[in-house]
Amino acid sequence: MTAPHGTPAAGTARRSVSAPRAPRTVAGTLRAYLALTKPRIIELLLITTIPTMFLAAGGFPHPLLILDTMVGGYLAAGGANTLNMYFDRDIDAKMKRTRNRPIVTGEVSPRAAVVFGVALSIASALWLGLLVNWASAVLAIAAILLYVVFYTLFLKRRTSQNIVWGGVAGCMPVLIGWSAVTGTVSWTAFLLFLVIFFWTPPHYWPLAEKFTKDYETAGVPMLPVVSSRENVAHQMIGHTVAMIASSLAIIPLGHTGWVYGVAAVASGAWFLFLVIRYALRTHRGMTGKALGPMVVFHGSITYLTLLFVALAIDPFVRF
């Protein structure tokens, strides 16, 4: 398998990746393969899946169904993340934030990473199909293809809107969680999909702002690299407003109660405040820590966690 797009930068990837290190302990090897799956990102994905299952079930789904869905979801996300690291190994070697990833350091060879990523992807489809349902399996495969092909190979190096449309893959866990319980998807699941879709840009662009030099060096046209801070901030506000609207649109469908409603309004207002404050700071010409991009980044994670925790609690607190 060749490096993505056949670009000169991709062609130098093999020279950028370190030679394999000396044999390591079994524990060290396992840690390297675990790192390929990007477990911290997967934690965020799983946070959205379980509450969605609670909402779809109107209470506790069967514990074994939750476990099977979580394992299948982890395998799918891990496979996609591993293949993403394989195709991005050239730019990962150029970026301070990613240059210690296992393929770049030589802890895992590119060929081994491909085998591992494909194996995890196939295992996820079979696991979900045989132990959950085939609707969830199809959605998981769609998520893998969206992330690896649509985002990593097609969008990431070509457009500043890469994370907007590439973020569709990160929205799939809510559909998988809903279909795991019901065997299908609904308008409620679709609105949860939209919440995460609109959440992704104001979540990721502040991180890209902090690591602008990394992306410039790697030649990745993230929006903060190719556009003004003011434009980025204005787009973040638009996405945040759409995110809040999507979260509130779930309430009239009747699946949620006051716990979710209060959390959606309060956490949405708080996060919108963070984004507007960020926009005002860009207008004043602030940069670096004074601008505070990581405050918005961490705030976005807090927002999503609060919203989905409320979603999980809501079915059990009804009057």
UniProtKB/TrEMBL annotation:
Keywords: Cell membrane, Heme biosynthesis, Membrane, Transferase, Transmembrane, Transmembrane helix. The keyword Transferase applies. Pathway: Porphyrin-containing compound metabolism; heme O biosynthesis; heme O from protoheme: step 1/1. It is found in: Cell membrane. Its main location: membrane. Its EC number is 2.5.1.141. CDD domains: PT_UbiA_Cox10 (cd13957). It catalyses: heme b + (2E,6E)-farnesyl diphosphate + H2O = Fe(II)-heme o + diphosphate. The chain crosses the membrane at residues 41-60, 66-87, 108-128, 134-155, 257-279, 291-313. Residues 1-22 are annotated as: Disordered. GO terms for molecular function: protoheme IX farnesyltransferase activity. The keyword Zinc-finger does not apply. One of its GO terms (biological process) is heme O biosynthetic process. It is a multi-pass membrane protein. Converts heme B (protoheme IX) to heme O by substitution of the vinyl group on carbon 2 of heme B porphyrin ring with a hydroxyethyl farnesyl side group. Belongs to the UbiA prenyltransferase family. Protoheme IX farnesyltransferase subfamily. PANTHER family: 4-HYDROXYBENZOATE SOLANESYLTRANSFERASE, PROTOHEME IX FARNESYLTRANSFERASE, MITOCHONDRIAL. Carbon 2 of the heme B porphyrin ring is defined according to the Fischer nomenclature. This is Protoheme IX farnesyltransferase.
